[in-house]
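Researcher: For the annotation table, I need structure tokens for dTMP kinase. Please keep the output clean. Sequence:
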Amino acid sequence: MSKSQRLVEYLKSKGVAAELWRFPDRFTAIGRMIDSYLSGKTDADDAAVHLLFSANRWEKREAMLAALHAGQTLVVDRYAYSGAAFTAAKKVPGLDLEWCKAPDKGLPAPDAVIYLAMKPEAAALRGGYGNERYEKEEMQKEVARQFSLLADDTWHTVDAAQSIEDVEIQVRDIADSAVAACSEGPALRLLWEAKNKL
Ligand code: 2DT
Ligand code: MG
């Protein structure tokens, strides 16, 4: 079971209505194009692929909003922050971080971002890389750097090199606080109305 799924199960066990979402959603028509690109079956222009990832979130916007308004807590495994960080990490002239953020402007913003931080060297030692595009140490290093530029005060960094139990305790704690804060009723924010930069 993924960490995100475990978090959903934990929240449900506490009586919090929660759902797991993940991006890219590889099961829509756009998602299948993304899947084919990530698995290396097809090549595509970097800007065009970036816009597909964003469109894959936009096509889910109505459903996300409906779930949120029905009181669901959405645990989202990757979202627009991954979108911006991964494309910016490619260092394609013109596709800087601001360009990469732009297409997601106006999507619902997360109340809390939980960033599981691990040094790319340590991740490589865990043998975690598969055969997909981007699963390379150099790329992951640059992605981590881009993520650090995106961090705002919705961010919580958890050291993923700890034991799974310790990671889970911290993730649960952050989620509990976020759910409690939302129940006090702050309005839904939109990307990229960041609060403050870290
Ligand atoms: P996983 O399915 O294993 O998470 O890998 N990505 C993801 C992007 O480049 N842009 C995006 O908008 C998103 C959501 C991160 C998916 C890979 O796709 C990358 C890893
Ligand atoms: Mg993957």
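Researcher: And a one-line annotation?
Model: DSSP finds nine helices and four strands in the chain.
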